[in-house]
Amino acid sequence: MNNQFKKARIRLTFWYLLILMAVSLIFSTVVFISLDAELIRNARREQQKTVAEQLQIKLPVPLPDPKDLRPELINPPLNKEIKQSYEFSRNMTMLYLLIANLIVLGLSATASYLLAGITLKPIEIALENQKNFISNASHELRTPLTILKTAIEVTLKMGPITYPQMKNILESNLEDVNNLETLTNDLLILERSKVNLTTVRIDQIILDCIDKLKPLTTKNKVSIHTHLSSISIKADESGVNEVVTNLLDNAIKYNKPGGKIYVSVAKKGLNCVLEVKDTGIGIEEKHLPYIFDRFYRVGLKGFGLGLSIVSKIVTQHKGKIFVESKVGKGTKFTVIFPSNF
Ligand code: ADP
Q1: Helix (H, G, I), strand (E, B) or coil at 201
Q2: Which end of the chain is more exposed for a tag (fewer CB within 10 A), N or C?
Q3: Which residues make Cβ contacts (< 8 Å) with residue 329, sequence separation at least 6?
Q4: What is the pLDDT of residues 268-294, one digit of tens each?
């Protein structure tokens, strides 16, 4: 726990303690006032008995209304003995309440400290995650920027260059800029928490994504096979688009030349089930628990953000995502969207 959180924990403990002690003190005061009233009533009754004995009269039980009593018996001044006994009981009550309050103070302090820790833990974890995220993002941004900067510096130091040389350099620069654009887009998507729900045709989204990824499919020599039922779900259109694009993009990127991709969407009960299966390189079992983590990647390709975006969007839709993979054989991602979301 860092210093900032230690201070916040102590401050929170203090406030919890203050509230608990205020409640305990109010409760003790009420108890004390009612006990004191009872003690004074008893003392007066005792005194009335003594006075009645001195007057040689018998007091009726229960006592009648004070206005029906003889004047000597209405609030008679307490004699020394009765007063001492009343004061003793009063002091003892005070002492017991003080001890009880000290015990409450000790217990409350411990409970408040523990409670403050429990309250602050999720905030601390979220802040830690955010810090890691910023440091990872800055690191990822720095690499393409450094490459770009070096390329520009080298070009500037070069003598006169030919048009093909310049074209080469600019193409390489553009690739770096594209990488930076992808990364910043991914970061923005990851931080976006707004979900704009509409009725979307998931099969149509899949077809659009396949169309959009055609150049990559051709370049990597893989083919996509579909089995799509016409399904409408309540979802965020750009979110579903991101899910499908990232899963297909990975299935193409991590495939082998001549490899295949099978995409299907079907309704199962109340859910909509999307499957993206490829015959690619597969993922080693030891990596599987981490592939949905931000910036986790197995090789050097990509930024390791695609699947964390997918996972975040699926969670936003109260859905689930599963992965099965065999090295050298292929990978299958199954996404379940609840259609009543
Ligand atoms: P990136 O955007 O860098 O591809 P992802 O978060 O999408 O990162 O994926 C994380 C890692 O999971 C990748 O580095 C890759 O090794 C592995 N991976 C994801 N999808 C597949 C797939 N279909 N086949 C094989 N490996 C995959």
Answers
A1: strand
A2: N
A3: 279, 282
A4: 998 999 999 999 999 999 999 999 999
